[in-house]
Structures are given as C-alpha cells and as structure tokens.
Amino acid sequence: MTLQLLISTLNEGINRIPDLLLPPKEGVSYLVSWQHSEGFVPSKLPEEIERRADVEVHVLHSRGLSRNRNNCFRLATADICLICDDDCRYTHEGLQAVIETFEEHPEIDLATFVAKNDTEPKHYPPTRFNLKEKVRNFYVISFEIAFRRLSVVGKVEFNENFGLGAEKFGAGEETIFVSDAINAGLNCEYFPIQVVEHCGPTTSVTRFADAKVLRADGAILFRNYRSTMWLRLPLMAWRVKRKAGVPFIFAFKHIKDGIKEMRKLSAALQ
After folding, report:
1. HSE on the CB side for 170, CA within 13 Å?
2. What does the pLDDT look like over 156-195, one tens digit per residue?
C-alpha cells in the first residue's frame, strides 16, 4: 500500500518543504501544489526538492487554500493520501502508522489522527470513535486527515468558499470537508495515534477574531447545528470576547452574517 503526502504551499512557502521531507522510503512520496498569488515572481526550486525523485511539484495560479488542496486531490496517485501543510514535520514511524491503520481497517475511507503541537495544545480523545459522533471539545484540523484516494477523489472535495484566502468564509474548510464525506456515505473515524507535529499556532487561532473566520463559525453553526444555532450564537460570541477580547457585538454580528450567508449558499445549491 502506497502513501502520498499532499502538501499545499503558497509563494515562498516552497522554501519550507525541504525541512518536511524525510529520507526516501519505498512506497512513500510527496506531491506539492505550489500556489502562486497574483504578482508573485517565483525563484528556482530548492535543490533539495529538485534532486528528489519521490517529490512532485505542480504550480497553481489561483487563490485560496481549499483550491490548492483540491489541486492536490486531482493530481494524487497513491493508495492513501495524507493532507499536509508546509510547516508540518513527520517521522517514518508516524507515516507507517497511517499506512497500517488503513491496512488493518479496510472498512475505513477516511481517518483523522493526532497532531503534536506544543505551542497550541489540543484535546484529543483517548479512544477511537466514528466521526458521526459529536464529541465535546473535539474538532478536526486538515493536516490530521488521511484517506483512501479511490474512496474520496471525485466524490468529495474541499468547499472553496471556505479556508484561508476564500472570499466568503476564512476558516472551517476541514469541518465542512469531513461533514461532506460523512454525508456522502464514507466511513470516517478518529484514531488516537500521533502521526505529525505542527510547528507553531494554526492559522485559525492566529486569526481567531477575523471577520471572515467569525462568519465561518456562523456557517458551521448553520450546517451542523441548525436546530440550536440561535441558542449557540450568543454563547459563541461570548467565548470569542473572552478568548480574544473582541467586542461581543462585533463577534455576534459576523457570526450571524455567516449563518445568513450559508443559508443563501445552501439554498442556491438545492
């Protein structure tokens, strides 16, 4: 069974890729979607990338992290795909654990794992569970996700209205992606196995009070908690105020705007 790391990077982020690469190993390869923003003038690829036969780099002229991830999906070739950021770090043991999980559980289409992050500790349940369950204080980050290529590609992709660089919602793409996978009938489970280390805080935390991120929170309320979203809205706004010092009214307004925008988007797709 082969494993491919699907790495999304933007502009000068290509220079971080060499620090991510492990010594070559049979059955493990790296696919890099190198997104160029408007006006970016690329330099030469780092030599550490050029000399590696197990690394592919594909240029994408566009905007938006979800679009970049979807480009990786279209180009992927391995049995198992692991979603990556350019500031992630891996070990062969962690990658082997991903492969073995899918080998030992042929019923699984998509799995999420544990990411170590000393800067931004996160709650991980100690036992395996199906992602259909709503577990308190648990959420998924993109670089924790692996999947069977044939189960996912062509059936589910990242919603390009969500994520860093998107026009409507500035976060939440992984939550929507997993939700779409479950709704598509895929078997999605969490495994309490550490497979990656992420260096530094995630973007959603550094932009916690950004209006687009707050609108993404509202969109997810509409998508996953529709029956209770109006009860959850003021509580979420209060938590943003407490955590980031954002005025309650500001947070409330943009979360509410996200609910409204997602309702319009959902209606247009029906």
Report:
1. 16
2. 999 999 999 998 999 999 999 999 999 999 999 999 999 9
Rg (CA), the chain: 19
Percent helix, strand, coil in the chain, to 5, is: 45, 20, 35
Burial of 205 (0-12, 13-18, 19+ CB in 10 A): middle
Q: What is the pLDDT of residues 190-244, one digit of tens each?
A: 999 999 998 766 665 667 789 999 999 999 999 989 999 999 999 999 988 888 8
| Separation between Cα atoms, residue 41 and residue 226, nearest integer Å | 44
What is the distance of C-alpha 249 from the center of its chain?
Answer: 29
Instruction: Report yes or no on whether pTM surpasses 0.85.
Output: yes
Please report, as a single letter, which amino acid is at residue 10.
Answer: L
Among 156, 167, 151, 145, residue whose Cα is nearest residue 65: 167
DSSP letter at 13 equals: G
The DSSP bridge pattern shows strands 145-148 and 80-85 to be antiparallel
Would you say 36 and 104 are in contact if contact means Cβ atoms under 8 Å apart? no
